[in-house]
């Protein structure tokens, strides 16, 4: 089976930003394939074909991408949305736990890109859209491992974009801030908690819960992803929501000393 409609592949499409993105791309005229680690537990989504995929597994990634190519004959847009959260002080998080976060958030993206990119180069066109975060732009105390994974995605995507542009392919970043999803509830907590950080960690947890409750709707982020997928002249970075926009401006234009003080104030840190 082949199609004349553009085809989008969205990882982590069973809920939250991924689910809304899949629906928004259907509405924008795409044939959409969504992925989940266990599609037997995913409610049907109008116009979206679901495949099992674990981005942390090489064989799983290869099999899923080959299924899409076999069924549709093309992949025009890859949305790397699948990811995991991690909260807690850096010292409280073991290297093994950090490796687990990177295996999904960073190496999962790399696996998907390496499998999809040859098809896009052969087509002479394609968009790779990687979900970063506002904490890929600014520091986030008590989320050091997660922030590091998103900083890695920033550097990887910007470098990749320069490599593939001459082949008609673009690699782009979408940077949400706090979004009303299950992120906070589903984030891993430190596996080696230390009493010295307990008070500040609890303060951060409360602050994060409030920020997510008052955050942007996933559909707002999905709208930005569709723009990245369809803009005739795409930008490298798309911030999603006013908080992300302000954070990007803060990072670029505020002097380092003032920026540092603002980060400590926002995170209720002493000194």
Automatic annotation (TrEMBL):
Family matches, as SUPFAM superfamilies = NAD(P)-binding Rossmann-fold domains (SSF51735)
Alphabetic keyword roster: Oxidoreductase
Which residues are in the Ketoreductase domain?
Answer: 6-180
Top-rank lineage group of the source organism:
Bacteria
InterPro entries annotated for this entry?
A: KR_dom, NAD(P)-bd_dom_sf, SDR_fam, SDR_oxidoreductase
On whether Oxidoreductase is a keyword of this UniProt record, the answer is yes
Q: Does the keyword Iron apply?
A: no
**Which family does the UniProt entry place this protein in?**
Belongs to the short-chain dehydrogenases/reductases (SDR) family.
Listed PANTHER family: SHORT CHAIN DEHYDROGENASE, SHORT-CHAIN DEHYDROGENASE_REDUCTASE FAMILY PROTEIN
Q: What is this protein called?
A: NAD(P)-dependent dehydrogenase (Short-subunit alcohol dehydrogenase family)
């Amino acid at each position: 089976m082949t199609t004349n409609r553009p085809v989008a592949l969205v990882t982590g499409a069973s809920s939250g930003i991924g689910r809304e993105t899949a629906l928004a791309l259907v509405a924008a005229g795409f044939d959409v394939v969504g992925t989940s680690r266990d599609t037997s537990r995913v409610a049907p989504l109008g116009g979206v074909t679901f495949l099992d995929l674990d981005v942390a597994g090489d064989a799983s990634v290869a099999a899923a991408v080959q299924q899409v190519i076999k069924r549709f004959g093309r992949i025009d847009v890859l949305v790397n949305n699948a990811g995991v959260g991690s909260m807690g002080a850096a010292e409280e998080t073991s290297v093994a736990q950090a490796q687990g976060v990177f295996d999904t958030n960073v190496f999962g993206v790399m696996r998907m890109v390496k499998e999809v990119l040859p098809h896009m180069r052969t087509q002479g066109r394609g968009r790779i859209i990687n979900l970063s975060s506002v904490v890929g732009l600014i520091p986030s105390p008590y989320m050091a491992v997660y922030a590091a994974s998103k900083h890695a995605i920033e550097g990887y995507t910007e470098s990749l974009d320069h490599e593939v542009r001459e082949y008609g392919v673009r690699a782009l970043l979408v940077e949400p801030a706090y979004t009303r999803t299950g992120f906070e509830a589903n984030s891993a907590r430190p596996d080696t908690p230390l009493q010295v950080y307990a008070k500040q960690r609890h303060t951060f947890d409360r602050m994060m819960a409030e920020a997510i409750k008052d955050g942007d709707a996933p559909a707002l982020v999905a709208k930005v992803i569709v723009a990245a997928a369809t803009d005739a002249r795409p930008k490298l970075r798309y911030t999603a929501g006013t908080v992300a926009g302000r954070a990007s401006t803060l990072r670029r234009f505020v002097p380092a000393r003032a920026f540092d003080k603002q980060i400590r104030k926002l995170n209720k840190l002493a000194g």
